[in-house]
């Protein structure tokens, strides 16, 4: 049964997040999550400070389900536990309560504007699973939850790094408002993936160098600006544009650096929004948004 004391605790946590407009919805969902935790997890004697942290975890998961942006660092501070313990506990709770993850390779690609990378990410993930389990016992394999966000985020980060994304992509993944993964967990999993996918990573690097494998990334930079990168063989073009630039007439700055192929020494300015690659991205993005709306309606 939901006590008035629990209601006060939820109120205080939500107020600390400065989310007054959404307090009613967050509290209702957090109450539901908390009841499920009581029924399926109980007192959780193996968890440190469970009594204190449980309502914080409930609010955290409630905000994620409702897709309400919130300050994760503030909740971590309230929990007064390590970042590793906090995210490990959240992962365990989601697994026990069978809460579906909202993170997928599609959603990550949509977030960072790189639909072309999906086939490479999926292939890297399959290779990692095939190779890693060879070194694990049957008991350890049974414990693996391949739907855990850590695998998807770490594989995505590794693949972006190989295919020409800027180094700050990892920082953006860790600090993202909709990804709950600790920095140590991300770094450890990244090293593991790089170890077991070494051959595939070298293969991709070879294709980029020798076969002109094209990669495409849009990575957030300072303020409301983006860098659109198109790498094709030895040609690299970088276009900067405003985040809210929906006007084709708005000025753009484009920097082009040419390798051996640019013997003429001329520079051709290309409007990125007029390229087939951008059109592909728009079509793909529309499909992803439709899927997200369908998921929202199902969860609602």
From TrEMBL:
Domain ORC6 second cyclin-like: 104-195
Protein family: Belongs to the ORC6 family.
Protein name per the record: Origin of replication complex subunit 6
Limits of the ORC6 first cyclin-like domain: 13-99
Pfam family, one: ORC6
Keywords: DNA replication, DNA-binding, Nucleus
Compartment(s) where it occurs, according to its Swiss-Prot or TrEMBL record: Nucleus
Keyword match Repeat: no
Ranges for region Disordered: 232-263
GO biological process, one term: DNA replication initiation
PANTHER family listed in its UniProt record: ORIGIN RECOGNITION COMPLEX SUBUNIT 6 (PTHR13394)
GO molecular function: DNA binding
An example Gene Ontology CC term for this record: nuclear origin of replication recognition complex
Main location: nucleus
Organism expressing this protein natively: Gigaspora margarita
């Amino acid at each position: 049964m939901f006590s008035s004391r629990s209601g006060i605790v939820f109120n205080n946590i939500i107020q600390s997040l400065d989310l007054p407009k959404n307090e009613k919805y967050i509290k209702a969902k957090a109450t539901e999550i908390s009841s499920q935790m009581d029924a399926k997890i109980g007192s959780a004697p193996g968890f440190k400070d469970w009594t204190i942290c449980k309502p914080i975890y409930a609010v955290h998961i409630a905000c994620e389900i409702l897709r309400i942006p919130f300050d994760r660092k503030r909740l971590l501070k309230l929990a007064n536990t390590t970042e590793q313990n906090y995210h490990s506990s959240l992962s365990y709770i989601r697994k026990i309560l069978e809460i579906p993850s909202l993170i997928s390779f599609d959603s990550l690609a949509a977030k960072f504007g790189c639909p072309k990378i999906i086939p490479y990410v999926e292939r890297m993930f399959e290779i990692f699973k095939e190779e890693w389990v060879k070194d694990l016992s049957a008991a350890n394999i049974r414990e693996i939850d391949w739907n855990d966000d850590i695998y998807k985020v770490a594989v995505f980060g590794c693949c972006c790094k190989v295919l020409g994304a800027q180094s700050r992509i990892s920082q953006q993944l860790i600090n993202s408002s909709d990804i709950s993964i600790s920095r140590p967990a991300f770094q450890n999993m990244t090293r593991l993936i790089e170890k077991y996918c070494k051959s595939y990573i070298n293969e991709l690097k070879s294709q980029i160098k020798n076969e002109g494998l094209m990669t495409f990334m849009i990575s957030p930079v300072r303020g409301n600006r983006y860098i659109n990168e198109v790498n094709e063989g030895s040609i690299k073009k970088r276009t900067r544009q405003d985040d809210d630039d929906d006007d084709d007439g708005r000025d753009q700055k484009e920097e082009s650096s040419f390798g051996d192929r640019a013997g003429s020494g001329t520079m051709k300015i290309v409007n990125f929004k007029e390229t087939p690659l951008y059109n592909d991205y728009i079509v793909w993005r529309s499909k992803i948004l439709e899927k997200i709306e369908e998921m929202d309606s199902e969860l609602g």
